[in-house]
């Protein structure tokens, strides 16, 4: 199997895996459009360079996503979906006013916080 065939088989597997997850009630991460990527970035009021810093990619990658020359995948796609969903919440938008919002780790923390309970009983005692 050549490189192209291997990539194509990998893409087919990824597509099937994501569709399988959607059937199980998990989010289907396929199909984020260049317009949606740009809308997320503009809503955050970030330049392409700042947005790239948050996503741990280069600004040229963000530019390629926004022009449709490339598509986000993997963790970047998941973060974009989380950003899109969280931008609809008042608490997340309020946290963007925090001076730490430009720090990728702070933003990632704020994105993931709703996914994990704050219940102290879930923390294992030592």
Describe the structure.
This protein folds into two domains: 1-30; 31-122, 434 Repressor (Amino-terminal Domain). The chain has 126 residues and is an all-alpha fold. The chain has helices at 3-23, 34-44, 48-55, 59-67, 74-86, 90-95, 104-112. Helix 2 (34-44) crosses helix 4. It is built from seven helices and no strands.
Pick out its properties.
globular, 2 domains, 126 residues, mainly alpha, 434 Repressor (Amino-terminal Domain)
Structural class comes to: mainly alpha
Tell me the number of helical segments per DSSP (H or I, 4 or more residues long).
7
Distance between the termini: 51 Å
- CATH level-two architecture of the largest domain: Orthogonal Bundle
The major β-sheet equals: none
Secondary-structure element series: HHHHHHH
- Overall shape: globular
Radius of gyration: 17 Å
Indicate the low-confidence ranges by residue numbers: 16-22
Tell me the name of the CATH class of the largest domain.
Mainly Alpha
The strand count comes to 0
**Oligomeric description of these chains:** single chain
Mean pLDDT, to the nearest integer, reads 79
Helix proportion: 55-70%
Short description:
This protein has seven helices and no strands.
Topology readout:
Elements: H1 3-23, H2 34-44, H3 48-55, H4 59-67, H5 74-86, H6 90-95, H7 104-112
Helix pairs in contact: 2-4, 3-4
């Amino acid at each position: 199997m050549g490189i192209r065939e291997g990539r194509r088989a990998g893409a087919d597997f990824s597509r099937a895996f994501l569709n399988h997850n959607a059937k199980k009630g998990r989010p289907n991460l396929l199909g984020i459009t260049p317009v949606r990527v740009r809308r997320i970035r503009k809503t955050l009021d970030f330049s392409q360079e700042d947005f790239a810093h948050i996503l741990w990619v280069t600004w040229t990658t963000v530019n390629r996503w926004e022009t449709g020359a490339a598509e986000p995948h993997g963790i970047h796609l998941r973060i974009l979906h989380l950003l899109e969903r969280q931008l609809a919440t008042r608490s997340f938008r309020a946290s963007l006013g925090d001076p730490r919002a430009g720090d990728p780790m702070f933003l990632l923390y704020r994105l993931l916080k709703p996914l994990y309970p704050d219940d102290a009983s879930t923390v294992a005692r030592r």
